[in-house]
Specification:
Mean pLDDT: 86
Largest sheet: 8 strands, mixed
CATH architecture of the largest domain: 3-Layer(aba) Sandwich
Low-confidence stretches: 1-33
Order of helices and strands: HHHEEEHHEHHEEHEHEHHEHEEEEHEE
Shape: globular
CATH superfamily of the largest domain: Zn peptidases
CATH topology of the largest domain: Aminopeptidase
Strand order of the largest sheet: 1-2-4-3-5-8-6-7
Strand content: 15-25%
Amino acid sequence: MKNTISMSLMIFIITSGCTGPGGFFSEDELDLVPFEFDLTIEDLWNDIPINQTSASDIINLTYEFNKSPRVTNLTEIGYSINNQPLLLVEFGEYDPAVPTVYFVAAQHGNEPASVDSAYLLARHFARASPEEIDPILEKINLAIFVMVNPDGRDANSRGNANGTDLNRDHMKLLEPEGKIMQKAFQKAHPSVTIDMHEFGGAGTIIFQVAAPQNPVTHPDVLAASYVLETDVIEAINEEWGFGSVTNYPPTTSSQDSSIHRNHFAVHGSVSLLFESAVSEEYSERVRLQSWAAIAVIDEVADDPDYYLDARQSSDDEGQEGNDVVYTYLFECSDPATAETLQILKGHGFYVGYKADDESVTSIHYETFLPRTNFPNGTALVPMDQIGWRMISELMEYTSTKDQHYTNSPKDRGQDAWRALEPVDYVVNNEIC
């Protein structure tokens, strides 16, 4: 499997050339390219662009994937601030018995190589020969969010049209693109998530890979992330000879839950960050991202059960509940409650209310003062659901712990209590 994809791609890159300075196709060619399903990789990966492809061209080209029988769904999962469609492309039969590998490109609009690479990857799976692709899609599902921030790409800016860094909005969900990324993640339910970026680049480092570092992450998910990080680096170095590929160095924000790789790892997905160095030629940056993406797919397809099991361990833990915190309870009369519930629901969690007047042993989650009296109808978020570790992060993070997350319940003065025993509840997402 590994040799089939990666070596074919390497042969293509060595032998193919660029048709022009603007991207994959000239403007006149966009509507004239026939969509075929049995081309070779040399045909499919038409050319690595020497300059970034425009946001509108990427969107138009991505719509062409609707013609591919391998595309299970091509969804306008939402829209940017400037009303550009945000497209999620899903491949395969979406068999729950195999892991889903999910790529997210261009949270930062001024990191364009990630978009061209994500598009190339999607085109490859949409149009390559059945002999090459079908065996892979028997082992994995594939989802690609080709371009998260088209407005930033148009403006060549890191932020979206509001100037917000989307890779610091995963906790707060203040921006429409941040909310849509949560929606896309919940839809794909990936075992493996890859966040594609670029960095300033200096010296000999031309590509970096980073696993999540938040200790709240389920240990199986964290372990599998480090295994995948190591395997991808080794695959690139050993098979393709990039001695300048390295793991991403730890920073003061390396545990930050508002950063994509940490955030979605806490949600339960094995996660990596890719960074290509902007000091390299544009075509080289696209090539590096593409090769790294292929390496991920190779590694996951080589051992799909390992990555599926890591995700499943996290999911099972949530569904089975835990014996530390059973639920968080809070009053509808609290001015902070409506916003807290909105954030929780934005992360895909269900909420509800206490279904009886029975006493509940609990402590205030900030002051640790005890409380037992919670009447019928008290609002709550249960912890016996997938991704429960993120509920704790959302409820208890503060801006003093993380400079990026300034919208936490604690920061807004939310009064809430950790239940230390089971609570009878009714799910009701319209509570309060």
